[in-house]
Amino acid sequence: MLAIIIPYFKLTFFEATLRSLEVQTDKRFKVYIVNDASPEDPTGLLEKYKGKFDFVYHRFEDNLGGISLVQQWERCIAITGDEEWIMILGDDDVLGETVVASWYENYEIFNEKSNVVRFASKVITEETGAVSHTYMHPVWEAATDSFYRKLEYLTRSSLSEYVFSKASYLKYGFYNYPSGWYSDDKAWIDFAGNKPIFSINESVVSIRNSFLNISSRKDNLEVKNKAEMVFYRFMILNKLNFYKKEQRLKLIRKYEDSIKKSKNLTIREWLLLTYFYLKFFDLYSFKKFIKRLVKNLLRYE
């Protein structure tokens, strides 16, 4: 069976999420609603949905999501039962009515061939009411290729539209980046292992973008920049061999830029970058890098 975990904190759009679960055409799922010490009590609303679908409600008295989103996800997963597949659904996101049905319809296709399954997605911009086009994906795609498409702004990706095997989660876990930035990106690369991501494009998960989202906040750029730097360091140290030469150079440059946004480059970091620019040598890219290096050195004379 499929476990759908909702780390609950905000009531504002929560009923839309619950309603999307109520109207699922296939009810073979169990929902775990986990209250992260929210000041907004959802129990009155949950009474309305008793018997509409299978769910359990648990409240933690200490807020963990404000300290570490990843640790909050982990304790949510810890209270699930024997379900072998997990979706972590935002408390403001919405499932299309056939999401669960299409997951089961495709089960025999992806089972044992993939550890990560994703649905097509749309973005709802709450302030304007605009709904994006549907983001669809190759049916089978390497996780590293999927991330690179996101890097190139050819697609989007977030937590809610993915289903992953509990076995892969237990093997790798989520990496605890600051505020959870890039934790899901790394998870899909890790969880996939040597198997491709399987995409179900006939059903859609709608992701809500509002003033309540962490991604919409402007006061956490320092935290985001730090997470970006650590993530791209992981990518260049561990995943460059999965990419073509020009893609490798772009990832190296992303790491360089992320350090500059987070802090000044140290000699150690310049040496590391020099090593990678030489290893994947391109004359134009290397000349531009040397100019940046010289400019940096002159600044400290």
Automatic annotation (TrEMBL):
<protein>
    <submittedName>
        <fullName>Glycosyltransferase family 2 protein</fullName>
    </submittedName>
</protein>
<dbReference type="InterPro" id="IPR001173">
    <property type="entry name" value="Glyco_trans_2-like"/>
</dbReference>
<dbReference type="InterPro" id="IPR029044">
    <property type="entry name" value="Nucleotide-diphossugar_trans"/>
</dbReference>
<feature type="domain" description="Glycosyltransferase 2-like">
    <location>
        <begin position="4"/>
        <end position="100"/>
    </location>
</feature>
<dbReference type="Pfam" id="PF00535">
    <property type="entry name" value="Glycos_transf_2"/>
</dbReference>
